[in-house]
Write the structure tokens for this entry.
Amino acid sequence: MRQIIQHFTDDDLYKFTMCCAVIENFPRTQVKYRFNDRDNTIYPEGFAHELQRQVKMLEQLSITDEEIAFMRRQCRYIPAWFYSYLKGFRYNSNWVRISQDSAGHLDIEFEGSWSDTILLEVKVLAIVSELYYIMTGESDRLDYGAYYDISWNKARRMIDAGCTFSDFGTRRRASFQAQDTAVKAMKECSDTMRGPGQFTGTSNVYFAMKYNLVPVGTMAHELICAIAGMYGPQMANHIAMKTWASTYRGALGTFLYDTYGWRIFSLNFSEDYANMFKGLRVDSGDNVQELELIIAKYKSLNIDPRGKQIVFSNALDVDKAIELQRYAENKCIPSFGIGTHFTNDFEGVEPRNIVIKLVAVKITESWPFYFSTCKLSEDKGKYSGDEVTVKRFLEILHLH
């Protein structure tokens, strides 16, 4: 079977920006990640073997001079030393353990240095998603000609509605070609249409380079999860904000706040950080309720929320985004990051409901044991981590 991931930068920007921050602030930290299929999917026989082969092929990837030149131009906030690190970076399949039980359920774990394994998550998820459709034969039903038109019309509707939006769809795309088709269509729609909205870019660095777009993204929950595992969840958001600010000096100023829910984040979100960060990202809970909490917090700090960017990325589709735009446009600066709906919206094809989450951490390789960690978003169904750890964190944060 062909190699599914063929470009080093066929990955989301936030993996690179977090990798840089990890090397600068937590260079010896060790981590474990675990795969979770929320639908408990039965994978085809031999899936684990082929997935292992695809992960082994990642070892052949290296960043090109063209990719480095593009990132230097578009990501000026990333320090120059990091590109030397990427130039020498090579994947190692020994970081990954893959198995499949007799019923067909899939198990994937990563373990190793945080700065190494952090660059596996998005690529492995994209491989799992595309490989599933290949091995079940569903990939034969993907009509890319029709998908271009569907994607173009999605972009047209959002531009007409005044939405500022980007593609966040690498992890659960139907295929590389599906994301390529969607990004191409939305870029060409944005170039030819005149309207109050705008397609601003993609989280995928390779496609941003291919279509001369801005790579979009900041951080993921794993940054706060790892810090919480090392130092406790009470101040994890505070430490993460301090770390991010010192690494990027005010750039990449959209903070993902919902790792342990709004309440504890709000207690950590002091006036200095509220002024420093240009905005927040809403990734769980009820979008309107979360926005109202954000607005109230800014107002309590005598900050006008109409000058703050709020990025909505919680399982959106075009209809939900347009509805939110109408509600939020006079309350803040709304923007939208849309994932699966952009890159895996084929008729008769069910998107994979899969994630890979950081579940354990130790401060250095010399520690004899790991600390478990978890994520407690505003959606209880999206809690990640083992039951004992979730319960302990809920008690620590007075959320039980």
Summary: The first strand starts at residue 30 and ends at 37. The longest helix spans residues 144-160. The two ends are 48 Å apart (CA to CA). The chain has a mean pLDDT of 97.
